[in-house]
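Summary for the steering committee. The consortium agreed at its last meeting that each partner would contribute one worked example illustrating the joint modelling workflow. Our contribution is presented below. We chose a case with several input lines so that the handling of multiple components could be demonstrated. No manual editing was applied between input and output; the record is shown as generated.
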Amino acid sequence: MAVTGIKEVARRAGVSLGTVSNVLNRPDSVAPATRKRVLDAIDELGYVRNDSARHLRAGSSRTVAIVVLDVSNPFFTDVVQGAEAVVEAAGGMLVVCNSGQDPAREGRHLATLEEQRVRGLLITPVENGRHERLERLVDRGIPVVLVDRGSGQLNRCSVAVDDVLGGRLAATHLAELGHRHIAFVGGPVAIPQVADRHAGAAAALAEHGGGVDLEVFETKSLSVTAGRQAAEDICALPHSRRPTAIFCANDLLALGVLQGLTIGGLRVPEDMALVGYDDIEFAAAAAVPLTSVRQPREQLGRTAAQLLLEEADTDAAHGHRHVVFQPQLVVRQSTATAGPRRRGR
Amino acid sequence: MAVTGIKEVARRAGVSLGTVSNVLNRPDSVAPATRKRVLDAIDELGYVRNDSARHLRAGSSRTVAIVVLDVSNPFFTDVVQGAEAVVEAAGGMLVVCNSGQDPAREGRHLATLEEQRVRGLLITPVENGRHERLERLVDRGIPVVLVDRGSGQLNRCSVAVDDVLGGRLAATHLAELGHRHIAFVGGPVAIPQVADRHAGAAAALAEHGGGVDLEVFETKSLSVTAGRQAAEDICALPHSRRPTAIFCANDLLALGVLQGLTIGGLRVPEDMALVGYDDIEFAAAAAVPLTSVRQPREQLGRTAAQLLLEEADTDAAHGHRHVVFQPQLVVRQSTATAGPRRRGR
DNA sequence: ACCACGGGGTGAAACGTTTCACAAGCTGGT
DNA sequence: ACCAGCTTGTGAAACGTTTCACCCCGTGGT
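What follows is the complete predicted structure of the assembly.
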């Protein structure tokens, strides 16, 4: 009921402002009897701290933000859960912002978060390279940890999975199955993960020798719909120019591709092998269980949050660390063939 | 660079505090020349508003929160996206909190949000019935909109989908296919959605006549893992006591059940028909595309956010509204049989 | 010449905390 | 008796905005 604050409480308990504040923040420094009176008053009045005032005075807030590329991608929700666990255990609050792979939206979120003087920031930036806005946050003293991204120009802590290696694993697997014409479905290529996974695949195939061809089909986004679209394009190709295997930058894409291929009358893995990336929970439950490159999603989030809190707690300079996890290939039915049936030559 | 605020800007631009504030909040009331000087100063100093101070003074904040049962459930991420669109269009910020179906965690979130004096709250409460904490927020004047829940005791706006009807649709569909022993997999039953969907199914079967049996298998949560577990239990049943169809409270559960049945050697739909709920994007991409009850997820979020903002903008009393959407049965392969093969009688 | 008016600007108060230097009252050692 | 040292509590300043009453001055009407 009472819209007022500490003052009212103080009056009611017959103590001074400072004492109430002490009860709230350093309960042990207050005599038990007084403490009880104050707590009772708080209860009766239904008093609730005003965070704005507290942080205005204290300078820093206790919320940590995470800005992800796509909230509806299970990969990110798992990362979020990992981070959440750590932040909450430390008594903080994690707010989730969704950039939706849109730089403008990312910018707006960062602006708001900057105004909010968040305690720290976990982010998977939409674009690589210098990031003016992000650097401003850093200059302002807000710890930033890059998630699923090498630290790039920005000298920050980072947590990532080796995407180049992931690409290698996928491509090597397909090459070893005998595929000679492989499609890479992913995009926009400006997204570093996409670029790295492609680069890894390309490098592995080059080393593998035997002139394996990697053809890129760029998509507008990393979504199921985009995958379905790409599959339709591939189905429309004349048989002789059609790849025999597809490596998707993402499980969402792979799931879409799977649907598209089915619509187009191509069977997986008989007519087309398929490899995804992320190994989200739904990959194993897909129409054809998906071979995929697994990333330690939750651990990524947990580690990122830990690094962040560590940096935030360290008053002095802090050595930035880069943690890189190794991805792992999980083979399932979508690549369960001896290889492509040779044709046309 | 400058850690300071408006004061510094004022000095640099050679104006008073009030003028800077006016430039920020009512630009038109300031002469163009002065305005430019101020804006330049802001730029040079890299000044960024301090939200805490602003809201301390102004009383209310511009962030809206949504508390969901499970961030990693695609149903909720879609709801979130809908709400996000509306809130951002109105210049606000949406923070996502995850209760993980844990009342304690929900409580902690609400406490924090109350301290933060959020502008409004979208919530799917973990439990039904009186909700003391929520009522406090309401008393405090914070608009609350219930998502995917009837308004219960609380006289609030609400947005929901008719879960009883959804349960009916699913059960009727199965009964019409000739199933006489149907399992309901879902839980905890304390969750209203679960209860309603079950109630709807039970009611429909009672009306349908013909002594259709609905057996409940309660799960600990609405997750893929819980579903897998339940399926194992069902597989372990002697053939004669085993249901011929399963209705899951949730697609996640259904996906898990599908996996569990496969492991247990039962085929869908030949040996067991399966119906899910939510029609998440992955339902159509499942090993056996899932028959499911579709809900207008994004629209749910959008509408909820609109009601909330409307209430927040209305100073005076505001008539609470309850919007109820109709679910829709989407039939796919997981129920694509003429009915159960008769056995043992 | 005078007044009313309005655009443009000022400066201090207020928002609700936390912090900090300090005071008051005890305890126990000398 | 006296002082040192501790525990408990006090009150005012400060945090960075926004708001509000008010002032200054040029303009146009009389």
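Chain B is about 45% helix and 15% strand. Chain B has a mean pLDDT of 91.
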